[in-house]
Amino acid sequence: MTKWTYSDIPSQEGRVAIVTGANSGLGYFTARGLAEKGCEVIMACRNTDKGEVARAALLEQEPAARLKVMELDLSDLGSVHHFADAFRSSYKNLDLLINNAGLMAIPLRRTVQGFEMQFGVNHLGHFALTALLFDLLKATERSRIVNVSSAAHKMGEIRFDDINWEKGYSKWRAYGMSKLANIHFTHELADKVAARGIDIRVVAAHPGYSDSKLIEKGPEMNGQQLMVRAGRFVNSFVAQRTEMGALPQLFAATLPDAVHRGYYGPGGFGGMRGYPQRTYPLRRKVSKDVQERLWALSEKMTGLSFLSK
Ligand SMILES: NC(=O)c1ccc[n+]([C@@H]2O[C@H](COP(=O)([O-])OP(=O)(O)OC[C@H]3O[C@@H](n4cnc5c(N)ncnc54)[C@H](OP(=O)(O)O)[C@@H]3O)[C@@H](O)[C@H]2O)c1
After folding, report:
1. End-to-end C-alpha distance for the chain, whole angstroms
2. For atom 39 of ligand 1, which residue has the closest CA?
3. Domains along the chain?
4. How far from chain centre, in Å, is Cα 182?
5. Given this model, what pLDDT does residue 308 score?
6. Which letter does DSSP use for residue 107 in this model?
7. Radius of gyration over every alpha carbon of the chain, rounded to an integer in angstroms
8. Partners of 266 in the β-ladder
9. Closest-lying ligand 1 atom to the alpha carbon of residue 211
10. Paired residues of 278 in beta bridges
11. Who has the most CB within 10 Å: 41, 69, 122, 215?
């Protein structure tokens, strides 16, 4: 395993990236890593006040960084359309789309369109965002899409017969399903792009286990302050630093020879910590049949069709 780190990110001068969920955790460090190397980074955040606080913190460290906060709430397809329109009115190219934002193991909630929240935000919102920006990515040389999944994909099943968890909601199984969807989406998008000879590299990454705020959101929504503190406590000695956890997605986004349809994660203990390297999703969880069915379902649920003909 090579000790690839922030200083190894190649120059990103002249490039434009969108990082969803860039105000916090892995998204924050992803924005930092790209901006330090000259990339203009659009910090796509559901709460623009939090986004501006994060932007100010990044600018303190890197005054020359080119950072812009734009509002994007992935739990509302209307907001995804609005974000894409606003982006298109200012930019004609998009070099990197980093589909990073996410929620984990939250109580049952619904998106504005009525989808189960984890599937809605972690997968469908990003599916819609990618569809709406696809032509800009296509028009940009050497562009790339990175989907952030998780080791939790291993406990996922795509429940085609109850995609919105109308029955027997399990917050962890729903998270696993959404993260497995990230892998299937990556594979089907990569296959479609390759079959059409389009010059976009499509990759997935996961951070292992990092000490971000992800673990706190579920208990916070349930008003369980003790569990929030317990999560922080566990993180403080089990998880690796978020700065380290962001490396696989930066590796996937910037490594010149990153493999189309590849998956990148930490190479250390149990794939949960360490420097980034190529890894593989659990083989028995992925199949062409499921990825095709998920694509068709995602088009139907979002009302957005792309690369289907
Ligand atoms: N940390 C880990 O160990 C770990 C492990 C495996 C995978 N991951 C994945 O890594 C990604 C980033 O998570 P993180 O660990 O950095 O957690 P985090 O610190 O909680 O950051 C998550 C980001 O997603 C944003 N977000 C949540 N709901 C959103 C919505 N509806 N629309 C737009 N943005 C929304 C959050 O915004 P707010 O700040 O406004 O809530 C935040 O900016 C997720 O996809 C997660 O599944 C993390």
Report:
1. 41
2. 24
3. 12-299 (3.40.50.720)
4. 8
5. 87
6. P
7. 18
8. 276
9. 1
10. 264
11. 41
Residue to substitute in 18, 46, 55, 116 for testing ligand 1 pocket (most ligand atoms within 8 angstroms of CB)? 46
168: number of CA atoms within 13 Å, CB side? 4
Share of the chain above pLDDT 70, in %: 100
Query: CA of 64: how far to CAs of 29, 58, 177, in Å?
Result: 16, 10, 40
Tell me the average confidence (pLDDT) per consecutive run of 10 residues in the chain, 309 residues long: 92 98 98 98 98 98 97 98 98 98 97 98 98 98 98 98 97 98 98 97 97 92 91 90 97 97 96 96 97 98 94
Give catalytic residue positions.
169
Q: Which residues approach ligand 1 with their CB closer than 6 A?
A: 20-21, 23-27, 46-47, 50, 72-75, 100-104, 121-122, 148, 150, 206-207, 209-210, 212-214, 217, 245
